[in-house]
Write a structure and sequence with these properties.
Layout lengths: L7 E7 L6 H13 L7 E7 L9 E2 H9 L2 H17 L10 E2 L3 H9 L3 H16 L8 H10 L4 H9 L2 H14 L7 E4 L4 E3 L4 H12 L7 E3 L3 E2 L2 E2 L2
Parallel strand pairs: 1-2, 6-7
Antiparallel strand pairs: 1-5, 3-4, 5-6, 8-9
Length: 231
């Protein structure tokens, strides 16, 4: 198989309550849109829960507890908001919640159609981050799913599917074997990019994979892990 026909598989781990994940997703999408061989790229989105088992709480409260003081928490918030603005995203930290996203991830995993999965994922980010809506309660999630054409019966079947939590846990185990936080992008099971890297960094990674120049190295930026988010 020559470089012109070589496929590129990218596995992406993220969480809907991760402050840096939506930014990284948008930067990656911008890089992919400009990639000459984007038709050869297959993107697989995988689940990761930053707050498994934790009750939903205001994210500003969570960040103050993580950093130990309000000033440091506000510094991170300002950095996230500024980076988000650069790629056209709106972050409203006053209404954002942080908690266990098992139900949201299970719903996304239950969707087979790749386009619907993509639209639902984007809507979950927007609902949680911009609109201040809960993605933790079943009633709120069902309303969000309905907005992208997913029926209430499908939603209920997804939450009753006992196999989906195991698949989420499997995704997380794979991620922990590679890096310590999300967002995480793994290219052709070769090198990885962690964090909200620049659009140019994603472009370079795509080009490298297209040319099959795989090296054992990685690029790291701002990430969120089980103990909180980096500045």
């Amino acid at each position: 198989m020559n470089a012109e026909s070589k496929s590129i598989t990218i596995n992406v781990w993220s969480d809907f309550v991760c402050p840096w994940c939506w930014i990284a997703k948008r930067r990656f999408e911008m890089a992919l849109a400009d990639f000459e061989h984007k038709d050869l790229v297959q993107v697989n989105y995988k689940a990761f829960r930053l707050a498994a088992g934790q009750k939903a709480a205001p994210i500003k409260q969570v960040l103050v507890q993580k950093f130990g003081n309000e000033q440091s928490a506000n510094g991170m918030i300002q950095a996230v908001v500024a980076n988000a603005r650069e790629v056209g995203l709106v972050y409203n930290f006053d209404t954002m919640l942080f908690g266990d996203t098992t139900k949201a991830h299970a719903l996304v995993k239950a969707v087979d159609d790749s386009y619907t999965k993509m639209v639902l994922s984007e809507r979950l980010y927007e609902a949680s981050t911009t609109d201040g809506r809960s993605i933790f309660e079943e009633s709120s999630l069902a309303e969000i799913a309905a907005e992208v054409g997913i029926s209430a019966s499908f939603v209920q079947r997804a939450w009753n599917d006992e196999a989906l939590p195991s698949l989420i846990a499997k995704d997380e185990k794979e991620a922990h074997e590679i890096a310590n936080g999300v967002p995480l992008f793994v290219f052709n099971n070769g090198f990885y990019i962690s964090g909200a890297q620049t659009v140019d960094a994603f472009k370079q990674a795509l080009q490298r994979m297209h040319l099959d120049a795989i090296e054992a190295e990685s690029f790291q930026g701002q990430t969120c892990g089980l103990n909180g988010c980096d500045n």
